[in-house]
Amino acid sequence: MTGPTPTELVAAVPGLAPYLRPATLLHPYAATPDPQASRIGGPALWPAGEPWPHCTAGHLVDEYREVPAADRAIWEGIDRALHERARAGGDPHVLTADEAAERRRIMDGGSLDLIGWRTHRTVPEQPAAGCALVPLVHLRAEDAPHLPWPEGTDRLQVLWCPDDHRDLPNTRHYYGPNVELHWQRGTDLAPTVPPAPRRSAERYLPTPCAVRPKQIVDLPDQDELPAELHDAAEEFAQRYGLEYHRALSCAEGWKLGGWPSWHSTDLVPVDCGCGARMVHLLTVDSGLDPGVSVGRFAELHVFVCPVDLGHPVGLDLQ
Description:
The chain is α+β, with helices and mostly antiparallel strands. It has two domains: 6-59 and 127-317, Hypothetical protein YwqG fold (Roll); 61-124, no CATH class. It has helices spanning 6-12, 69-87, 97-107, 227-238, 244-247, and strands at 21-25, 28-30, 39-40, 44-47, 54-55, 60-66, 111-113, 118-124, 131-132, 134-140, 155-165, 176-184, 189-192, 209-211, 214-218, 255-257, 279-285, 299-304, 314-317. A hairpin with a 4-residue loop joins β7 and β8. The longest helix has 19 residues, at 69-87.
């Protein structure tokens, strides 16, 4: 016996009808994709004569520093003090305020390798330099007609920078790849060989995959519903031994449109710099055949401004 569908839930709880959104699940699978088909990764297409896009946002790089001999002596002295307190029956893990302050100073916002006696931090690259973007998703309009296609376009190319970034527009507490959207016409595109990125994290380089697009309808996370509607939806789901979240809402996987899940945090509305509330466009899922991993094997949600698709995207990790 299969479980109920979101459409059946809405028939039982009509108040949910305004919250139904169309979505497309891509269902990627390992295969050599057709260059003209919707796909993840794979061969690149770009308008002839136009330069390949580069990321100019601040990239993060690893910085290692040797711990000076004087600071190493301070750290080791604190360790000896901890051992002495432990022998006297004290807690071997509790630092005094002065000891804690010294250790924070020595680590300088990073981590400390006690074997090599080096600190490690990720810092903005100085001077900042551009990095070639990497094809992530190539989408034909026929496979996700519900997206807000600008007039005259029938292709969406999602490119990302395979480096980590902080402080991107329309993000909060974000650490991950920068993302760009390019709405284009298929007749303008020609095969191209993009330049290799200067530096890249392996987890941000997708294995080329073909896709099996499936159009569905999607319902939101409970945090985006009035309490009475969520209670009614949960009661309906429990009749089938299910929970509303994920079983009947926030469909999982590589998804276009629909609703994002807020399973790692409470709802964090993503607002554009223009003040408009942004809407979900794409979920990038970790693992599976494309082999990418965002966050701690998490989901990356990409949002767009409903007023102007040219505004910078919003990004959130869950």
